Amino acid sequence: MNVPANLKYTKDHEWLKVEGEHATVGITDFAQHELGDIVFIEVETVGEILEKHEAFGTIEAVKTVSDIFMPVGGEILEFNEALISNPEIINKDPYEQGWVIKIKIGNTAEIDELLSPGQYEAQIQG
For the range 58-64, what are the long-range contacts, defined as Cβ-Cβ under 8 Å and sequence gap of 24 or more? Predict the structure, then answer.
């Protein structure tokens, strides 16, 4: 499984790429592998301010539907529109083209509560 060293992770398999007061959020390679073929993604929370751990959308695979959770609290600025017509991008490239949302971070201290790449790897190898 691919676990990039420049990201932070949640126990629920989301990743966070911090860029100043903004961040990009997606699901991990492990999560997309476990879900299988992704067929639909819904995010209707653009413009909303959500707390850490709140669901910001859903991801539907052939086998299941799962909520996607906020790794940190903040305002949802943008949804990756490419996922509307090509949700399978997440299966092919979960960390770059397959990002899900961009946010403005509400409380940067919450970033320190996330898992490091090493901690996340230990969890998924559990």
Answer: 59/27, 59/35, 59/87, 59/90, 59/100, 60/87, 61/35, 61/36, 61/37, 62/36, 62/37, 63/35, 63/36, 64/35
